[in-house]
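Now for a typical sample entry:
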Amino acid sequence: MVDDRPTETLADVAERYGTTLNMVRRKWSHHPAWPTPVGKQGRANTFYVDQVDEALRTIFGLPAPEGSPSDLLTWDGVRSYLTKGSVTAEQMYHRRWKGTWPRGRLVDGEERWTRAEAEAAHVAIVRSRGGRGNHLL
């Protein structure tokens, strides 16, 4: 049976995630969670897109996906969701207290973020600080 899942090269990954090919080639692809190549496109190895996304969730310390990316979460919901990954409740508190966490939208008088916005904010903070000890970011 032929697997027809979409594949991409390291250059495609770099473009999709808005980073350099050097970052993907020398850092991310050396993480133990990185998938094994499934083929070639010219001289470049190819990887299944879904496996790359799963590996990068691990590298960025994101929890397993749950719910819909458009779910609106309160601050407690964001904190509860992200602490299932690699971030601690204390780190989340400091992110908000220091102002590194972006402001949410007001819904019924309470600040809320979509699950996708919360993940994007977490990844941006982790990447901007060089991963806080994670040499792969």
Notes: The chain has a mean pLDDT of 89.
